[in-house]
Specification:
Helix content: 25-40%
Radius of gyration: 22 Å
Number of helices: 7
Number of strands: 14
Strand order of the largest sheet: 4-11-3-12
Largest sheet: 4 strands, antiparallel
Distance between the termini: 37 Å
Order of helices and strands: EEHEHEEEEEEEEHHHEEEHH
Strand content: 15-25%
Shape: globular
Length: 294
């Protein structure tokens, strides 16, 4: 392997099992991008073929603590799904052609932490002048002998289909309770509301459902809801397909796909092993004492 020069940049990946960094070639990166686009196209094809209700809202959830236990996030997803189905899709519950929800789990950026409390950001692209050469492996490495890689905590992306206007105009008791919690009243006259105002109410209602989760943060920044825009895009995908693209931006291999996609709670199944909805834990849970924390 040729010596690395100080004016060249290299790519690295972190092995989550051994907490080591490995050199990645540009060929590997191209393969990852191809895998990710195949996954995106597969999800889009299933939504269109199975006539699943199209995503209309992108919800990002941040949690009040640094959760690294994926099971806790999955259980909170089930709680949020059940709440949304009961409130917004009571008549056609679990009918994905009427209402759909897709859940994705993503990590915050990982970092290096040393024994005296210092932290260092990790970048996918690392300049060699910040590294020292290992004369045994002939590879440039960080000179942090007492540091360890701390994996980033989880946050969630949720894609929710549109809420029919008639559901808002004729609310049942549970929806009325949510409306009083979020917008201050439980009746909306169907002849005296603009489309912009209706969208505002729907976003506030979605925020209200997510706020009921016991692990979602209390700040305004902990929940972000964005309406699908046909002109907006991400990585070459427009509209609702762009929401799929953004939510799967870290799905570059089979392992990441299984970690990111919440197959048990989403309206379409991408893996053969899936728990039925009736086996769900319907109530939210708090962190357990034995959960791994920083």
């Amino acid at each position: 392997m040729p010596d690395m020069t100080t004016d060249k940049e290299y790519f690295y990946q972190v092995d989550t099992d051994t907490q080591t960094k490995e050199v990645v070639t540009t060929t590997d990166i191209k393969e990852w991008k191809l895998n990710r686009n195949k996954l995106r196209d597969n999800i889009i094809s299933q939504i269109e073929t199975e006539k699943i209700a199209l995503p209309a809202y992108h919800i990002t959830l941040s949690y009040f603590d640094d959760y690294r236990n994926r099971d806790i996030i999955i259980q909170q997803h089930r709680y949020i799904r059940n709440q949304m189905e009961e409130i917004f899709n009571r008549r056609y519950r679990n009918r994905s052609d009427k209402s759909s929800i897709l859940f994705f789990i993503e990590r915050h950026k990982s970092y290096l932490a040393d024994s005296i409390g210092n932290t260092y950001n990790l970048f996918n692209r690392v300049k060699t002048d910040r590294k020292v050469k290992n004369t045994i492996t002939n590879i440039m490495e960080y000179d942090y002998v007492d540091s360890e890689i701390r994996m980033g905590a989880y946050h969630s992306h949720i894609l929710k289909s549109d809420i029919p206007d008639e559901v808002i105009f004729s609310p049942h008791m549970k929806l009325k309770n949510l409306m009083r919690e979020t917008i201050g009243f439980d009746t909306i006259p169907d002849n005296d509301i603009s489309m912009a105002a209706m969208e505002t109410y729907k976003i506030k209602l979605l925020e209200g459902v997510c706020r009921r989760s016991k692990i979602v943060g209390n700040s305004r920044a902990s929940i972000k809801v964005v309406k699908e825009n046909a002109d907006a895009y991400y990585d070459g995908y427009y509209g609702w397909k762009g929401l799929i693209s953004y939510s799967t931006k870290t799905c570059y291999n089979a392992y990441k796909m299984m970690e990111v996609i919440d197959n048990d709670n989403s309206s379409l199944s991408l893996f053969p092993d899936r728990k039925p909805i009736k086996e769900a834990i319907k109530k939210g849970i708090l962190p357990t004492d034995n959960e791994d924390k920083p």
